[in-house]
Amino acid sequence: MYSNNLTIQHWLPRHAKYKPHKTAFICGSTRLSFSELNASVNQLIHAWQKAGIKKGDKIATILPNCTALWEVYWACAKMGAVAVPLSPLLRGQGLANLLNNADTSLVISDKATAGYISSVKPLVPHLPDNRYWLINSNNTDGYTSYCDVKQMESTVEPDVEIVTGSDPYNIIYSSGTTGLPKGIVISHAVRALYGSLFANAYRMTPESIVMHSGSIIFNGSFLTLMPAMFLGCTYILQDHFDPGQVILDIGKEAVTHTILVPSQIIACLQQETFNKVSLPSIEYILSVGAPLLLEHKQKLNSRLPGVFYELYGLTEGFMTILDKTDALSKTGSVGYPPAFMDMKILNEEGVLQPAGVIGEIVGKGPLLMDSYYKNEEQTRDALREGWLYTGDLGYVDEDGFLFLTGRKKDLIISGGVNVYPADIEEVIIRHDAVKDVAVFGVSHEEWGETPVAAVVLTTGSDELNAEMLRGWVNDHIDARFQKVQEIIIMEELPRNVAGKILKRELKEIYESRK
Predict the structure, then answer these.
(1) Quick check: 153 pLDDT over 80?
(2) Which member of 53, 289, 410, 507 lies 3.0 to 4.6 Å from 261 by CB, making a disulfide possible if both were Cys?
(3) What is the domain count for the chain?
(4) Which of 387, 407, 427 is the last residue of a domain?
């Protein structure tokens, strides 16, 4: 049974009471104390209640990083509404599908996306015009001004219903890297445990200064977002990622904890000042969202020793953590499950695999999702007897540390042999001219499938062409079945908002060139 107290409902008002003047939130020129943030959240709840929003209603945001998005998260926490953060890049039928699937009661967006949202309104017939709010304009036809309705309301504590641990807090839609997005339902109890468990795992304290420069609409952001509010830390939200600005702000604000997805780490490593001498306050950099290649891990550990953590995990609720104390001795690993979680490696027949043998990663623990929203079949397929079947492949070493080899859907079977893209990617990234890489399988008449690599080159590598690089790669690969058939040089690799490389799109790009 869930404890009624295992919720995030009272975190913000508690800090507003006991540490009212401490800086809670910074975004651009906005700096709010806990008292000021709580007062603004109270105004928003009053405005929602006047509009007919109640506990359990779904609040969809289509926003970039901004103060309003932060307010929505904590207003939902306090009144028991369900936050449904959606990507501002969604368009047309794809956006309408998610608004309908989530049973959305209110949409909050900004002027930049208003035109796209207007075009899908006819596709979301259950939502009237007064349930579309705009944060930065009061002159756009068919929208309610978020700021106007909020500012008219009282800052006193609203009368809200009791929230329990089993009540939903989030519906987070999956990235859709392997199909249509699924709505992952995450309860208050799970988010409360995010706060406590990850604060402990990442050695955070109430004095920590936490910064986030990626989008906070994806689940990885909650790994520090929840601990920061749980402890009452100062949280700095950058409105967009810029490696130079990241480094400047870490220094200026004495940031101790930050998350960077692999593509952001790669960009930061291009900056000379991304080092421990320039950034003495930093205690923790978490790599999350996609595997960080060994070459980049080594560079990061060299530049900023003793701060690197890596998390492998799914929004559905299973994680492993590579602690900073293991970052050098277990460099190729993504760590082991934190407290209260279990993991096993199974083959196709469901048989437990010994150390060193690759199989599907299966895990369980108290952070598992409730369900895929309105999708019992996919829920049953993912959650079996309390275990989450991740669809990812890996193995454990003799010490129980997990090593990833890729997703089951990304596995390349060439001539009947399993080829793991990560093994080839680790070779390619060692070339001095390669900045980023992704390997995927394409059909082959003789072998069934064969590997192809998409690469991004470093600046000043114009003399290197794809055929020259392919020759170097294949010279450095021993196994014949791992040799790449072709290399595509690209300006950037397609990624979703969480930083994951979209290999499905790479395959489409490859096929379109044939």
Answers:
(1) yes
(2) 289
(3) 3
(4) 407
